[in-house]
Amino acid sequence: MAGILCVTAHPDDEAGAFGGSLRLYHDRGVQTAVVCLTPGQAATNRGGFSCDEELSAVRRREFEASCALLKVTHGEVLNYPDAKLYRQNLYDVVCELVLRIRKFQPDVLITFGPEGGVTGHNDHSMASIFATMAFHWAGRSNRYPDQLNNGLQPHVTKKLYYATADSPLADRPPITLPPSTTIIEIGDYLQTKISAFKAHTTQSPLWPRVEDLLRRRGKQENFHLVASVIPGAIQPETDLFAGINAV
């Protein structure tokens, strides 16, 4: 069965940045997985929780509720520190993502771009770097060879995409977004995406702004094709799996 792996930085990223596509492809029979690197314990909006441990636990439950609405096959929140991904050992974080790629064996990996997405968030940038390296290394037998036991094998994911948009947010530091190569029409899943974001109740102060932004951007999600096993020049796409069946 075909599969998509989404690598994010915080609970709620799966909904706001990727939710429409995750639900759309689930309903097309694709297995979907989300690996979130942090439990979001450094969030400005804390839902009344002053203790990082309590907030982490609540945000993990919110992530589970969001993934249920998006029908995510497998959702997982790792325990790296929110707002400090840039301080983590790159080789170790990539190791964890490589292991999950080898286990889940996705055809497509989606994540943020190194600019940090429309918010330019530092953690989004680091999630991009970690996920990109894992995409390239998971298929090589000389990367983390100690993982290759009990039947686990290198896995080559066929396509890597960064989420992108037509324009950045006006009140954030300037960023340069990757051009859109792939437009996914999510249709009525826009409302599902908004509902999944609202499953993150600690982030309720952001709900009006996020919903307004998502509705203004319309019923589509944009991606930039970064790497592909399919040879040749990039062509405009309307499907993350375009060309894969021909490989």
Characteristic key phrases:
single chain; 7 strands; Rossmann fold; 34% helix; 247 residues; alpha/beta; globular
Architecture blueprint of SSEs:
Layout: E1 3-8, H1 13-16, H2 19-27, E2 31-36, H3 52-69, E3 74-77, H4 90-104, E4 108-111, H5 122-137, E5 159-164, E6 182-185, H6 189-198, H7 207-217, E7 220-228
Please, could you describe this protein's structure?
- Helix 3 packs antiparallel against helix 6.
- Strand 2 (31-36), helix 3 and strand 3 form a beta-alpha-beta unit.
- Strands 3-2-1-4-5-7-6 form a seven-stranded mixed β-sheet, sandwiched between helices.
- It has seven helices and seven strands; from the N terminus they run E-H-H-E-H-E-H-E-H-E-E-H-H-E.
- The longest helix has 18 residues, at 52-69.
- 44% of the residues are buried.
- The chain is globular.
- With 247 residues, it is of the alpha/beta class.
- The chain has a single domain (3-246), classed as LmbE-like (Rossmann fold, 3-Layer(aba) Sandwich), CATH 3.40.50.
Strand count, sense and barrel status of the largest sheet are:
7 strands, mixed
- The largest sheet has its strands arranged as 3-2-1-4-5-7-6
The H-and-E topology, N to C, reads as EHHEHEHEHEEHHE
CATH superfamily: LmbE-like
Named at the architecture level, the CATH assignment is: 3-Layer(aba) Sandwich
Q: Helix tally?
A: 7
Instruction: Give the fraction of residues assigned to helices.
Output: 25-40%
Mean pLDDT: 95
How large, in whole angstroms, is the Cα Rg?
A: 17 Å
